[in-house]
Design a protein that fits this description.
686 residues, alpha/beta, Aldehyde Oxidoreductase, domain 4, 3 domains, seven-stranded mixed β-sheet, five-stranded mixed β-sheet
Length: 686
């Protein structure tokens, strides 16, 4: 279905187009992402003859409540009830091109685009009503999905009936932030009832008539290649199709380690998942051994040895290490692919529908109109669903089998063959003046990334560099990218400098954040709510704090921990996090994002890590890879600083960066141990 065909199914109405070429490329863990946004692409909106309101966006919903906040934007500007608005997301045939849902860009870029489109539609409706009724447009008001002038009134559908109107918009006429009625309020989650009742269908649930279920044969270790394959036993199973291809290719995903699609590709397809699993087990492969490669015990040395442009003669005062970790989405990756008359349609859980379309186009040599990617709302992503892996697998097998194919990754596959948050080494050096201000600052990150590399504190002549390294594992985007690693090292080192200068960590940060009022505000807000100045010391108890900025937001975190004896388990007792991201679009959902980020951050801070050796992931299942549990969750208090004088910024990532350094600093406060590696205490403190 083309976009024109899709519009014709909607009937007459108003189409609003927005031109916006100001959206910048974002770091996302994929090569080739920094392509400019084409002209004349943005967000648009349709008002049907029946009064229905449909908005469109290439952004997707992965649990961050973008569907709700974008619906609020339309409701605010169209003066229409929230339930009357339908939002179509992430369908490459009917939504405008979008680079992807990453980098906390939905709120600062897509939200104002859809808001401005709706504001333009509102002004068009006023013009239309004034023309039909022969009245001054100043007498026409829009409210509750209707236009009214004196005794006259009409619904949106009545006004647009039989008309197909279009207009390019400039963004004028949007409601001032301080006059918001729907935006800025805790509107309930769109589709929330379907989610809690189980009615909502995720990519794992998508079905097509006659679809086969597929399994892929992966090597026993990264770097192994297929020497031979005996597939006779699998092919003898009724209904089973064995697919084998050998096609070196580069699809453009963030490999950085083992390549999934180079060399032999072997898969099985069957009428149900159980038969497919049986067929996979019946394959008899022989593998060439993998070459020697680093393991989780020596990878930090590998980062330094393979780094580009390492500084000569630099002597760090402190060295921090960060482990690889997995995304662990609630829903592993999934895709269903169907070929019909040479056109490929794929339903898949991805943060980048157009990026997946591009990878499929490249692999199969197809033009854009021959590939459609549809993204049902999916069960979380955290930056881990940028690539086309299951979509490409499903499409290859479907093409060979001549039937639709479903490819659902298992948890073990998700935690082995997906990409990871990069591990890294960070070296820092610095010195404080007698008055507590920073005299010197130098900071070098190896492999984990440049996000939030620059210090928010004033240090004349600060030197900060990112040094790419060779990674033995696939690596790519993770919630907040490298901001978590860099903020962990920076805020831990700030704490070290504060103690060496004999200055309280709160006072030290406030003094050195003199040029960032927004950062000072969140530090003061968190410390004030926490009662930092009145904290009560006791044996086995510790207090720590951190601050930071990223993606247009400012965050400060204060924690209290208890170190349990015997065993040395670190138990977070209380967390206070203050966050400021400009004007707040939905305070309830923002609080949920912050609380979720803190809980997720506890895992990477305290115990999450990927253990690997000889090209094998050793903890690729939840029985071996610990994520935060209910018993790990402390009391969490959120302080929101609602800056209606600033445009809204994204909030899906920045709140995660504060918890790890605050915990590290609290451990030092409780025990005198300065731990400089994440995770901090996977097996407790010695």
């Amino acid at each position: 279905m083309t976009r024109r065909d899709f519009f014709e199914t909607l009937g007459g109405g108003i189409l609003v187009f927005l031109v916006d070429d100001a959206i910048g490329a974002q770091e996302s863990g994929r090569r080739g992402m920094n392509q400019p946004l084409p002209q004349n692409l943005g967000a648009w909106l349709h008002i049907g003859e029946d009064g229905s309101i449909t908005a469109y966006t290439g952004k997707v919903e992965v649990g961050q409540n973008a569907r709700t906040s974008l619906t609020q934007a339309v409701a605010e500007e169209l003066r229409a009830p929230v339930p009357s608005i339908r939002l179509v997301m992430g369908d490459t045939d009917v939504t405008p091109y979008d680079m992807g849902t990453f980098g906390s860009r939905t709120t600062p870029t897509m939200w104002p685009q859809i808001r401005n489109a709706a504001a333009t539609a509102r002004e068009m409706l006023i013009d239309l009503a004034a023309q039909q009724w022969g009245v001054d447009r100043a007498s026409v008001a829009i409210a509750n999905g209707r236009a009214v002038s004196g005794a006259r009134g009409a619904g949106f559908g009545e006004l647009v009936k039989g008309r197909q109107l279009a207009r390019t918009i400039s963004g004028a006429g949007a409601t001032p932030t301080r006059e918001w009625k729907v935006a800025g309020t805790p509107v309930p989650k769109a589709g929330g009832r379907d989610i809690v009742t189980g009615a909502h269908k995720y990519p794992y649930d998508v079905k097509r008539p006659g679809a086969l279920y597929a399994k892929v044969l992966y090597p026993p270790a990264f770097g192994c290649t297929l020497a031979s394959l005996d597939s006779k036993e699998a092919e003898a199973i009724p209904g089973v199709r064995v697919v084998r291809e050998s096609r070196p290719t580069e699809v453009g995903s963030p490999r950085g380690g083992p390549e999934l699609y180079e060399g032999d590709f072997v898969a099985v397809a069957a009428p149900d998942p159980e038969i497919a699993a049986k067929a996979l087990a019946a394959l008899r492969p022989q593998w060439n051994p993998a070459p020697p490669q680093p393991n989780s015990g020596n990878v930090t040395a590998h980062f330094k040895q393979t780094a580009a442009d390492a500084p000569a003669g630099f002597k760090p005062d402190a060295v921090y290490n960060v482990a690889y970790i997995a995304h662990v989405p609630l829903e592993p990756r999934a895709a269903l692919a169907e070929w019909e008359d040479g056109k490929l349609t794929v339903w898949t859980g991805t943060q980048r529908p157009f990026g997946v379309r591009d990878e499929l186009m490249s692999f199969f040599g197809l033009p854009p109109e021959q590939v459609r990617v549809i993204m049902p709302d999916t069960g979380s992503g955290y930056g881990g669903k940028h690539t086309a892996d299951p979509a490409l697998e499903a499409a290859r097998i479907a093409k060979a089998a001549g039937k639709p194919v479903k490819r659902n990754w298992t948890r073990e596959e998700e935690m082995t063959w997906a990409y990871f948050r990069p591990g890294g080494v960070i070296e820092a050096a610095g010195q404080a003046n007698p008055d507590g201000t920073l005299a010197y600052w130098e900071f070098h990150n190896y492999n984990s990334g440049p996000a939030a590399l620059q210090t928010p504190y004033h240090a004349a002549g600060a030197r900060e560099q990112f040094h790419p390294s060779k990674s033995p594992l696939r690596q790519g985007s993770y919630r907040a990218l490298a901001a978590t690693a860099n903020n962990f090292a920076r805020e831990s080192f700030m704490d070290e400098l504060a103690h060496s200068a004999g200055v309280d960590p709160l006072e030290f940060r406030l003094k050195n954040a003199s040029q960032d009022e927004r950062l000072r505000n969140v530090i003061e807000a968190a410390a004030g709510r926490f009662g930092w100045k009145d904290r009560k010391r006791a044996a086995g108890r510790g207090f720590g704090m951190s601050a930071g900025f990223e993606k247009g937001g400012r965050v400060a975190t204060c924690v209290e921990i208890a170190v349990e004896r015997p065993g040395g388990a670190v138990k977070p007792v209380r967390v206070v996090e203050a966050f400021e991201c400009g004007a707040v679009v939905n305070p309830e959902h923002l609080r949920n994002q912050i609380e979720g980020a803190v809980i997720m951050g506890l895992g990477g801070a305290l115990f999450e890590h990927i253990d690997f050796t000889d090209g094998k992931i050793l903890n690729n299942r939840l029985s071996r890879y610990r994520v935060p549990r209910f018993a790990d969750v402390p009391a969490i208090e959120v302080v929101l600083l609602d800056r209606k004088d600033l445009p809204p910024a994204g909030a899906g990532e920045t709140p995660i960066i504060g918890i790890a350094p605050a915990l590290a600093n609290a451990i030092f406060d409780a025990t005198g141990q300065r731990i400089r590696s994440l995770p901090l205490a996977p097996n407790g403190l010695s």
